[in-house]
Amino acid sequence: MPQLSVVIITFNEEKNIGRCLESVKEIADDIVVVDSFSTDGTKSICDGYAVNFIEHEWEGYSASKNFANARAKFDWVLSLDADEVISEELKNSILKVKEYPELLTYKFNRLTNYCGRWIKRSGWYPDTKVRIFDRRYIRWEGTIHEQLSESPNPPIFLKGDCLHYSYRTIEAHWQQTEKFTTLSAKDLFEKGKKANFVKLYFSPVVKFIKSYIFQLGILDGYYGFVICKISAYSNYLKYSKLKQLHKK
Fold first, then answer.
1. Do residues 67 and 34 touch, judged by C-beta distance below 8 A?
2. Number of helices and strands (H, E) in the chain?
3. DSSP codes, 151-179
4. pLDDT of res. 228
5. Could you tell me the pLDDT band of residue 101, with boundaries at 50, 70 and 90?
6. Which of 129, 144, 131 is CA-nearest to residue 27?
7. Could you tell me which residues are beta bridge partners of residue 35?
8. Please, are residues 90 and 160 in contact by the beta-carbon 8 Å criterion?
9. Domain ranges of the chain
10. Which of 155-164, 183-192, 221-230 is least confident?
11. What span, in angstroms and rounded, lies between the C-alpha atoms of 30 and 24?
12. 117-119 and 106-114: which strand pairing?
């Protein structure tokens, strides 16, 4: 049976990490948690599980995840965020593929919980992610919304959802939007990109119409409207901040 390392990066995740670790203990042959010096109870919770807990300075999303992957015992890695949970159906799918003599690259859907409600539209689902891979050939890339490099073989789809417990409050979503749009603007600025009228004013409108109408955010009720509104506004905010950087 191929052996699988579960790799997680953390910072002040005491509200999430126990739930995440509990969901993977039956499928993991090794669990690595790389923590950016949390000041809450993250470490003490991890100490209650069979976890290789490593403290390491934050280097950015991709670099930190690649550092964590390199500390895993096995080449085959399941990469998770601390606020993600493997559902029972997905767990059974992973156990089934582990019976094969050789693992491949696998992807699965991610279902997000927003302020206590599961969001099944709004452009947030199925949100398919490649998360099981061979670290020798695949690495994390990108400075903000990190992605995996191209797989040497087409990823195989697994049944079952990865449950993502995202924002507990709308305010937390706004705060994260401020943070990510600042990072995105800096990244675009360093790449020499500019904000024109279309990107600044037209792209937010298109984003809202796409997610709320065509991706059926309207059927997600009040929170669907909030998600689509914030997503659209984040486009405006990103290009507005980019414009300010060029002015400076």
1. yes
2. 8, 11
3. PSSPPEEEEEEEEEE--SSHHHHHHHHHH
4. 98
5. confident
6. 131
7. 10, 55
8. yes
9. 5-165, 170-247
10. 183-192
11. 10
12. antiparallel
Residue type, 41: G
- Two tokens at 193? 């990109």
Among 109, 111, 149, 110, which residue's Cα sits nearest to residue 133?
Answer: 149
Judge contact between 10 and 38, C-beta under 8 A: yes
Task: Give tens-digit pLDDT for 139-174.
Answer: 999 877 788 998 888 999 999 999 999 999 999 999
Q: Is 230 a residue whose pLDDT tops 90? A: yes
Q: Is the pLDDT of residue 108 over 90?
A: yes
Identify the burial level of 3 via C-beta atoms within 10 angstroms of its C-beta, where 0-12 means exposed, 13-18 middle and 19 or more buried. Answer: middle
- 5-165 CATH pick, 3.90.70.10, 3.30.70.141, 3.90.550.10, 2.60.120.10: 3.90.550.10
